[in-house]
UniProtKB/TrEMBL annotation:
Catalysed conversion reaction: S-sulfanylglutathione + O2 + H2O = sulfite + glutathione + 2 H(+)
EC number from the UniProt entry: 1.13.11.18
InterPro entries: Metallo-B-lactamas (IPR001279), Mito_Persulfide_Diox (IPR051682), POD-like_MBL-fold (IPR044528), RibonucZ/Hydroxyglut_hydro (IPR036866)
Assembly: Homodimer. Monomer. Interacts with TST. May interact with RELA.
Gene3D superfamilies: Ribonuclease Z/Hydroxyacylglutathione hydrolase-like (3.60.15.10)
GO molecular function: metal ion binding; sulfur dioxygenase activity
Subcellular location: Mitochondrion
Lineage: Eukaryota, Metazoa, Chordata, Craniata, Vertebrata
Taxonomic source organism: Oryzias sinensis (Chinese medaka)
Cofactor: Fe(2+)
Entry keywords, A to Z: Acetylation, Dioxygenase, Iron, Metal-binding, Mitochondrion, Oxidoreductase, Signal, Transit peptide
Name of the molecule in the record: Persulfide dioxygenase ETHE1, mitochondrial
Family membership noted in the UniProt record: Belongs to the metallo-beta-lactamase superfamily. Glyoxalase II family.
Gene Ontology, cellular component aspect: mitochondrion
Amino acid sequence: LFQLILSMTFDPLHSTLHFLLEMQLLLVILVFPPQLFESESCTYTYLLADTETKDAVIIDPVLEKLDRDVKLVQELGLNLTVAVNTHCHADHITSTGLMKKRILGLKSAISKFSGASADIQLSEGDKIPFGKHYLVVKETPGHTDGCSTLVLDDELMAFTGDALLIRGCGRTDFQQGSSSKLYDSIHQKIFTLPEQCLIYPAHDYLGQTVSTVGEERKLNPRLTKSKEEFIKIMDNL
């Protein structure tokens, strides 16, 4: 069952998800978060919830999928408290502003280095709570100055935004990008997490859904190189 959950990209109306909820397995939302996909920009949105309190956070919501996301929150009876963006996205518009108008008490959050306005300006080490759980903010600049990686309190999952992708990484040729900073961010902030920590990126263009720190350390074709080699690769993309 866990292998099935791990491999699925969840549709909020998918019968399997509703079956699991009916069987009182709401834990699936926390342990294997639904990856809510937006096909135009190939963006993953993530919804995490505490199974007891139903307090929840949403990561990288997309404007075009606002109705879908609000409906799912309402269907699951969640108390959505924070909508956080891992960085300012160049390929889509966030839905946090409009989502705040439709969900009472919802607050927006983004890195203080992003240059964007939000209710919560995030810094290294900040915690985003939901029930008895929380996400820890790790500053991972390089794709942009304001990129954050969000790590679950037990370090079982990391939401890496556009910093670390599955077998790749974010571009560094715009939005204050820096190949040197990105290499250091990934090696110092993400690759130091436990090997089994699941990596959930903000994008994937090949249908991949999840990786691990251990896999990316060994198999990522860009990040297994030296820093100098990495910079050359990024400069020639």
